[in-house]
Amino acid sequence: MATATTSDSTAPVVEASARYVRIAPRKVRVVADQIRGMDVEDALSQLEFSPRGASLPVLKLVRSAAANAENNFDLDPEDMKIVRISVDEGPTMRRFRPRARGRATRIEKRSCHIKIALIPIPDRD
């Protein structure tokens, strides 16, 4: 999903989202906190070399938002900054694992929704 709105300084805000990502939101928030406020170039290099598994869907989402800025709004993705990234909880799939003596324990397979917003850096020309 790509949308652009204008903020107070008439700079377009380019947004992208990934829904129903099958990683727990707690794990994705650790990665999101690392790149919040970074330039797109710095965030991409940070995510490419991150050992966390949650960095892959976030990396794909940052690339998608940069592509939205370039193709839909004629902005240079190298001159963009991550102004907002949020990770919300998605639906949880519940499964049961059989245990000893006829019992069962619940397994919760969590998912999340990730939203990102980019704005152009005003200093660069």
Plain-language structure description:
The structure is a single chain. The chain has 125 residues and is α+β, with helices and mostly antiparallel strands. It has one domain: Ribosomal Protein L22, Chain A. It has three helices and six strands. The strands form two sheets. The protein has a four-stranded antiparallel beta sheet with strand order 1-2-6-3. A two-stranded antiparallel ribbon has the order 4-5. The chain is elongated and about 65 Å long. The mean pLDDT is 92.
Produce a short descriptive summary:
With 125 residues, this protein is of the alpha+beta class.
Task: Give a quick set of tags describing it.
single chain, alpha+beta, Ribosomal Protein L22, Chain A, two-stranded antiparallel sheet, 3 helices, 6 strands, 31% helix
Could you give me the name of the CATH homologous superfamily? Answer: Ribosomal protein L22/L17
Please tally the β strands and state the result: 6
Q: Which second-level CATH architecture applies?
A: Alpha-Beta Complex
Give the H and E element order: EEHHHEEEE
The proportion of strand residues reads: 35-45%
State mean pLDDT (0 to 100 scale): 92
At the third CATH level, what is the topology name? Answer: Ribosomal Protein L22, Chain A
Number of domains: 1
Uncertain spans: none
Helix content: 25-40%
Broad shape? elongated
Structural class, by secondary structure, is alpha+beta
Sheet with most strands: strand arrangement: 1-2-6-3
The total of helices stands at 3
N-to-C terminal Cα separation, in Å?
Answer: 28 Å
CATH class category name: Alpha Beta
Report the major sheet: 4 strands, antiparallel
Alpha-carbon Rg, integer: 18 Å
